[in-house]
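Hi support team,

I submitted a single chain yesterday and got back a structure, but I'm not sure I'm reading the token output correctly. Could someone confirm the output below corresponds to the sequence I sent? I've pasted both exactly as they appear in my results page.

Thanks,
R.
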Amino acid sequence: MLILVPNPNVCKRERQENRTLTSSITLSKEVIQGVRKTLASAEKSINMLENKNQLLEDIISAKEEKFSP
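Hi R., thanks for writing in. Yes, this is the structure output for that exact sequence:
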């Protein structure tokens, strides 16, 4: 019967690789979360600008109607 004994150097390397992968995954999740927040903020800004633009268009339209013969 053959008994395999794990090589301590291989196990240590695998643990380090697992830690590195876990760190990479955590960092990626944080970046994704940051991007989502940035996109949500940008969308709010775009909506505010669109609303302001609509208000200005309404004001111009009202003034044009007031001064039309």
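A quick pointer for reading it: Residues 40-68 form one domain. Let us know if anything else looks off.

Best,
Support desk
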